[in-house]
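dumping this here so i dont lose it again. seq + smiles for coenzyme A
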Amino acid sequence: MQCDIKKISAEKTHAIRHPMLRQGRPIEDCVFDGDKDPQTIHLGAFIENKLVGILSAYQKNTSAFNVKESYQIRGVAVLTTAHRKGIGRALMAHIEQILQQRKIDLIWLNARITAVDFYTALAYQQKGNAFEIEGIGTHYCFYKILK
Ligand SMILES: CC(C)(COP(=O)(O)OP(=O)(O)OC[C@H]1O[C@@H](n2cnc3c(N)ncnc32)[C@H](O)[C@@H]1OP(=O)(O)O)[C@@H](O)C(=O)NCCC(=O)NCCS
């Protein structure tokens, strides 16, 4: 499905972060570390001017990867009514393009177990074993080297 992808503010992500990623929790839990950093990028996917999907990217290295500059992707979510229409894929492709232009070496993320098939379909590779994030559940680290 055709969607428009635009940069949005950190606050705008809350409309989807809350129901899709922090359901039943206080709205303050929708604020993530680094949301306001100047290097952070928040993307929104719009269908007929309605926000249906979000993604955020943070300039952050991790000891798991020995690269100069990497970005962590967090808060990837699409409204349930719009799943399996290619919106998540379009958001990921868009951020990969932006980060490639910025000469970033690598993208990494901690995937919920329910999103493993999604990142695998997008050619992300798994690194290491499963681990728990308190209050959210089992996760796996995934990454993609940008060329
Ligand atoms: C994960 C999520 C963002 C995927 O968004 P989406 O727009 O539905 O995904 P897409 O339609 O772009 O899917 C791209 C490909 O990923 C794979 N995929 C996506 N969702 C899948 C699922 N539930 N089961 C199996 N494969 C899946 C498929 O290969 C799909 O391609 P296809 O539909 O042509 O077969 C969405 O399911 C979501 O918001 N989930 C809840 C929040 C969440 O868990 N976010 C991830 C946090 S780490």
